[in-house]
Amino acid sequence: MATLEEKKFMANNLKQVVIITGANSMIGKALVLKFANENWKIHATVRSKSNKDLIQGQNIVYHEMDLENQKSIHKTVDAILKSESKIDALINNAGFVLSGPFECSSDEQIRRQMEVNFFGTVFMIKALLPKLKTQKNSSIINMSSLCGLVTFPMLSMYHASKWALEGFSESLMFELESFEIRVKLIEPGGVKENDYASNVEFASIEKPEYKALLDKVHKTNWFPSFSEPNYIAQEVYNAALDKTSKLRYKIGSDCMLFLDERNNGFKDESYLKSIKKRISGEI
User: pLDDT band for position 35 (50/70/90)?
Assistant: First the structure.
């Protein structure tokens, strides 16, 4: 058990302070572990602190927060700011994938996809901005995806949430530059996760007319490679340390493959044809 003087010494020697949302996911845990190993003070948000798999450590403080509830967001941010004189980085990592035909997603699922993946990030940033503007020299890191740059079938609402995040972040970058607040977008392709099912929610309504396309999509080998969560965490850490105005951090060979394919075929929309060929097995 550390003494009071030892605790003060450790607190004074912490490098920086970071807020990480969605700390219960595979990437979230990897982020917490990475920043803890680098001696950062971490405020990690989760829906429930009863999760026994959460990374534990002296410099890690967990907060229960509901990203679908603005009062919960403000309550958490206020609690963090009462205990910290500065926030060096906000990492908006929380999110999930809604998979399936758009028509088969319930109204509740559609709203939740946007609330968690987009509006949760928006309101976290809005709650912290007054503090970040006064202190300057901080980073806002938004976890986007290859799916914020390209599209695949059966992920329409997930794409909507990530494309919205991309546009919002890019515009926000210009607005906050004079306050020395750096906005960063992390864009991984396929992610190797053990708890994949826990991060994916499937459309709740079944409609047989989509079955043929759905079966083709499920049989398509989309990603030639998958990035490990620890590798993504390292890239996020690098972005947190990056004092340049660089906005996008693309991760994984699959991300670059699809992005090159889209960029090369954007003008004549040949990229859309290549996606159809993948589904039909021609690629």
Answer: very high
**10 Å Cβ neighbour count for 138?**
23
Q: Which residues have a catalytic role annotated? A: 144, 158, 162
11-211+225-252 folds as Rossmann fold (3.40.50)
Report the half-sphere exposure of 151 (CA within 13 A, side-chain side): 15
List residues bridging with 200 in a β-sheet: 97
Structure tokens at 250: 């693309």
The two three-digit tokens of residue 177, written as one number: 């530059």
Res 48 pLDDT > 70: yes
Q: Give CA–CA dist 102/108, Å, rounded.
A: 12
As given in the structure block, the two tokens for residue 101 are: 């035909």
Residues 6+ apart with CB under 8 A from 127: 73, 74, 77
Domain boundaries, the chain: 11-211+225-252
